[in-house]
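Internal ticket - ligand job 275, heme C:
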Amino acid sequence: MQIMTHQCQNIMKNLLKRLYNYRLLFLATIILAGSGLTYWIINRPSGIDEAARQAGELLARNGRDNIPPCVACHGANGEGNFDAGFPRLAGLHPGYIAKQLQDFARDPMQTGVKLEPIARDYSKTPRIYSDLTVFTPGTRKDATMNAIAKALTPTDIQNLAVYFGSLPFEATPQAVDFQTLERGADLALRGKPEYGMPSCISCHGPDGRGFGPHFPPLAGQPPQYIINQINKWQTGERDNDNLALMQNIANQLTDGDKLNAAAYFSNRSLSVKRK
Ligand code: HEC
Ligand code: HEC
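stdout (structure tokens):
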């Protein structure tokens, strides 16, 4: 027994000695594996459909027949036009971009109350409210974008969404006077709890960075665009938000609120990486 243990100890000692001799190799392996992993994390394939991205870029830059180049209004890199109040498209979620183009293309007459087919047995019974399905896919009214979106095919829409969604974006915070910023921050971060109105960031994400396909970013959008959109909700020209989530907010905002919130979000910095 004693001998066995002794032998064991010797084997262990030899092993450790050998490992010690190979310590450089061992370290080198770890460093190589580590840097390989880091390289892969930084350069891993993005999962972007490259053919769609290229087709989208071509259409966005050159237009086609009666489709003007998107970049003419939305900026050479989809950054938008601050002075004109044209929205940025760079780095928006492709699902959001595609939905907006579908909503612009939809004829307002296609929305509203749709009758459900009535089961044969009940064809003689009077129509009651429960026979109706309220079907509101939603529309967005804008003379320019309505015409452009109607001319796009479903494939164009997918390609453009992939292209603009893949673009990087950098927002430079705009100077805003202190009182406007304070009021805007109050609305953005706190909402109006006394009226049951949640804060903007509870849906639009911290700093208005946006969240998933349904909650678009507000940071980096021209203040005039933000104000225009809230106005359009108030007049019913924009009526495409799921569950009227944004309409209910818009209806509680005063003209001052719109200015303050828009100014607050123009003061945020934002950096979206190329995908
Ligand atoms: C002549 C100027 C002009 C051109 C060209 C143009 N747009 Fe627009 N786009 C606008 C304006 C203005 C709005 C804001 C409309 C509104 O108030 O609802 C807008 C809004 C949008 C929006 C909604 C953005 C958001 O945040 O909800 C998308 C998406 C969009 N455009 C995509 C495109 C694409 C894709 C093209 C090219 C095929 C294009 N636009 C060409 C002016 C233009
Ligand atoms: C309860 C959730 C919710 C809250 C809170 C909310 N929003 Fe929204 N907002 C939405 C949704 C959803 C949309 C996208 C609608 C769609 O699908 O077109 C939206 C869209 C918008 C847009 C249009 C963005 C674009 O790219 O076209 C603006 C501007 C906006 N919100 C401003 C605000 C402001 C300012 C506040 C705070 C005062 C606010 N929102 C609070 C849900 C919310």
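Auto-summary: The pocket of heme C (ligand 2) is lined by residues 87, 187, 198, 200, 202-204, 214-216, 218, 221, 226, 229-230, 240-242, 245-246, 249, 253, 261 (CB under 6 Å). The chain is about 50% helix and 5% strand.
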